Amino acid sequence: MSLLDLSTLLVCVTAGLAFVNARFLKLPASIGVTVGGLLLSLMLLGLVALRVPFALSAVETVRGIEFDDFVFQGVLSFLLFAGALGVNSHALWGLRGPVMSFALLSTALSIALVGGALYGLLGLFNLDVPLVYCLLFGALISPTDPVAVLGMLKQAKVPKRIETLVAGESLFNDGVGVVAFAVLAGIAAAGSGHGHGPDLNAVGVLGFFAQEAVGGLVLGGVLGYLAYLTLRAVSDFVVEMLVTLGLVLACTAVALHLHVSAPLAAVAAGLLVGSLTDRMPTALSSREKFDSFWHLIDELLNIFLFALLALELMVVRFTAQALLLGMLTIPLLLLIRTVSVQVPVFLLGKRHEFSPYTRRLMIWGGLRGAISVALAFTVPAGPVRDLFLVMTYVVVVFSIIVQGLTVGRLAARAGRQEPQAAA
């Protein structure tokens, strides 16, 4: 499929779903598009079963979409950069201990617990899946994608410390999860004799992780500071937009060539540019227009992702066993998310106080989204990939629809009852 065909398909489908949602469903944009896309996909699947030529052609068109390339070589970096721009970096620095503890410790705990639990669960179904692949599923399902939740937190006017903690954890959680997935994918490839991954020892794995994570943060910091120097020297809105768009693309392209994490580079660049331009508002011709532009980019890309997510549903091979395993994984993931949040809270309890609503919002607001699906599509083709795709879809649909539609009430309750100074 050509870039023009893909762009036309995405824009037209997204516009149609967004119109139906705004006119009839009236749900939050990303959730409404997902629900509408799910219904559209099910309708097309029914037409495919009836061998309708149009539906068969649509499925073949969707099969040509390189979902993981679309997400990881463009969309993800733009989303994380836009999200980082909107975070108060000074408040984030004040919560750097809790944020990094949640991003690193919680993610590592989640990957290990999900991988171990899935290995045991698959064994009960007589499915022989290597432990490293179960850990790979843990890495792809652990990153949270609470874009809609952050909007609800702002709307509900929850305490800024809660908003900053949730936003910071989600940004770095995504980056760390993607790096962990790359490490485990390399180990799986090396163990199977295909591809080149890190050495199968602790030093090799830690070195690979450090190269991806630290290298990405350093790259983002360097490019972000150069972009800031450029922004400070001009006062033209068009030039400012071109500089920041070029910054995100440069972070992605250079990171791919240097084999470091593009998502973490985008996060570091966004935090740095947002922080430095906040200190010197004169560095931007119009802060309001600048923020509005990146907010629009953020909203549009999220809607595109969820529309593409719905389209991909048509090419996944569903089985009753895979659906059952996906449904059994949902409560398992919620339990593990609870544990992975509570452990850092317990360890940090002497130095930081966490209100009950902070923990509840982090647990129930830890939505899984398009990032998990994109990672699932990068698993090597075969029965394991098909199984993981179905399980991931079940989890993501539950997360977006059930958790996404109810977390707003929890956020509103937190906004009414929590004092503004509480975390």
UniProtKB/TrEMBL annotation:
<keyword id="KW-0472">Membrane</keyword>
<keyword id="KW-0050">Antiport</keyword>
<dbReference type="Pfam" id="PF00999">
    <property type="entry name" value="Na_H_Exchanger"/>
</dbReference>
<feature type="transmembrane region" description="Helical">
    <location>
        <begin position="361"/>
        <end position="381"/>
    </location>
</feature>
<keyword id="KW-1003">Cell membrane</keyword>
<keyword id="KW-0915">Sodium</keyword>
<dbReference type="GO" id="GO:0015385">
    <property type="term" value="F:sodium:proton antiporter activity"/>
</dbReference>
<feature type="transmembrane region" description="Helical">
    <location>
        <begin position="202"/>
        <end position="225"/>
    </location>
</feature>
<dbReference type="GO" id="GO:0005886">
    <property type="term" value="C:plasma membrane"/>
</dbReference>
<protein>
    <submittedName>
        <fullName>Sodium:proton antiporter</fullName>
    </submittedName>
</protein>
<keyword id="KW-0812">Transmembrane</keyword>
<feature type="transmembrane region" description="Helical">
    <location>
        <begin position="6"/>
        <end position="24"/>
    </location>
</feature>
<feature type="transmembrane region" description="Helical">
    <location>
        <begin position="31"/>
        <end position="50"/>
    </location>
</feature>
<keyword id="KW-0406">Ion transport</keyword>
<dbReference type="GO" id="GO:0098719">
    <property type="term" value="P:sodium ion import across plasma membrane"/>
</dbReference>
<feature type="transmembrane region" description="Helical">
    <location>
        <begin position="324"/>
        <end position="349"/>
    </location>
</feature>
<feature type="transmembrane region" description="Helical">
    <location>
        <begin position="387"/>
        <end position="407"/>
    </location>
</feature>
<feature type="transmembrane region" description="Helical">
    <location>
        <begin position="130"/>
        <end position="150"/>
    </location>
</feature>
<feature type="transmembrane region" description="Helical">
    <location>
        <begin position="171"/>
        <end position="190"/>
    </location>
</feature>
<dbReference type="GO" id="GO:0015386">
    <property type="term" value="F:potassium:proton antiporter activity"/>
</dbReference>
<feature type="transmembrane region" description="Helical">
    <location>
        <begin position="237"/>
        <end position="256"/>
    </location>
</feature>
<comment type="similarity">
    <text>Belongs to the monovalent cation:proton antiporter 1 (CPA1) transporter (TC 2.A.36) family.</text>
</comment>
<keyword id="KW-0739">Sodium transport</keyword>
<dbReference type="GO" id="GO:0051453">
    <property type="term" value="P:regulation of intracellular pH"/>
</dbReference>
<dbReference type="InterPro" id="IPR006153">
    <property type="entry name" value="Cation/H_exchanger_TM"/>
</dbReference>
<keyword id="KW-0813">Transport</keyword>
<feature type="transmembrane region" description="Helical">
    <location>
        <begin position="70"/>
        <end position="87"/>
    </location>
</feature>
<keyword id="KW-1133">Transmembrane helix</keyword>
<dbReference type="InterPro" id="IPR018422">
    <property type="entry name" value="Cation/H_exchanger_CPA1"/>
</dbReference>
<feature type="transmembrane region" description="Helical">
    <location>
        <begin position="99"/>
        <end position="124"/>
    </location>
</feature>
<feature type="domain" description="Cation/H+ exchanger transmembrane">
    <location>
        <begin position="13"/>
        <end position="411"/>
    </location>
</feature>
